[in-house]
Amino acid sequence: MADASDPSWLPGPVAVLVGRDYHVGGQGADEAEYAVCPRCRARTVIIDYPEESEPDEEAWQPFREAIATWKKSGEGNTPCAACGVSVPVTEWQWDTNFAVGALAFDFWGWPPFSVGFYATFSRQLGHRTVEHMGKF
Ligand SMILES: [Zn+2]
Question: What integer pLDDT is reported at residue 135 of this predicted model?
Answer without folding.
Answer: 66
